[in-house]
Amino acid sequence: MKKAILIYYTGTYNTRYLAKKIGEKISGAFNVDYLEVDSHSQPIDLSSFDLIGLGYPIYAFNAPSFFLKYLKRLKFPADKQYFIFKNSGESFALNNASSRKIIRYLKKNHVNRFSEYHFLMPYNIHFKYDDAFISELFEADKKLLEVLHFDILNVHTRSIKSNFIYNLVSKILRIQTFGGYLNSYFYKVDNTKCIDCGMCVRNCPVENIYYKNGHIKFKHHCLMCMRCSFYCPKDAISIGMLKNWKVNGGYDFKMIEQNKGLKEKKFIEKQKGFFYKCYPKTFKEIDKMYNQIISKSD
């Protein structure tokens, strides 16, 4: 059987969730390996894999700098099949430009045929998503997953179009890379809440958090992935200048997937503003791609 590897970085585990879903979907045609990139990850030889997926969460309309640094160390054999799977909490067109550096790395290695897919996942900052809406996101993601699966099996390429303006704005917003460094000087832990469970220290993907003299301390190479504050069991971590955007408490994806009642609420139909502007068009675009592959399968 052919071999596939999914190489990805994850902050609050949305990209890990997607990687597992993709792996399960393609497991009938490929033996699937996973590499979750963290501060200990070393470059690997990709020559033995037939299919290579590269996944990441979109940060300020860009791929995380930490993930890009890892990919830059890899050699991408030109004769392999590649795809990019990225995710964000909104479907703004500026997200189209987020893979531009990854695409540059691939083309530098003479890889000219690859696909790209943008999945929708709930926020881990700004505000928490309603479970009913996450259920709708998952329905759209399932359809996009079918599209991805169809493309892989049929060696079909699918691109996400960007343009000069999107690329320029995305490039300017790479200043967010320095935001983690600056913001980390303002991180605080409320010692009246902290129970010294060590979860934040153990789980930081870049080992930015440590103990000193019985207290939680922060170094200054934070990615602003929000994993520490998002999953703190006592909501004890203040994320500096972004404290008013903090979301605490993970999502129960398994429960959301199994709760049939959530699918009947039709959350997006009752919304205005942000949700209404972001998603209906994207849902229609995914439906169009899905219907096209269904017709071809028939």
Structure commentary:
The chain is of the alpha/beta class. Helix content is 38%, strand content 17%. Strands 2-1-3-4-5 form a five-stranded parallel β-sheet, with helices on one face. Strands 6-9 form a two-stranded antiparallel ribbon. The mean pLDDT is 92.
Features:
11 helices, 17% strand, alpha/beta, 298 residues, 5-stranded parallel β-sheet, 9 strands
The count of strands amounts to 9
Helix vs. strand class: alpha/beta
Return Rg in Å: 20 Å
| Sheet with the most strands: spatial strand order | 2-1-3-4-5
Strand fraction: 15-25%
Main sheet specs: 5 strands, parallel
Low-pLDDT windows of residues: none
- Name the helicity range: 25-40%
Query: Count of DSSP helices?
Result: 11
Average pLDDT, to the nearest integer?
Answer: 92
Helix-strand sequence: EHEEHEHEHHHEHEEHEHHH
Please state the overall shape, judged from the principal axes of the Cα atoms: globular
Distance between the termini: 26 Å
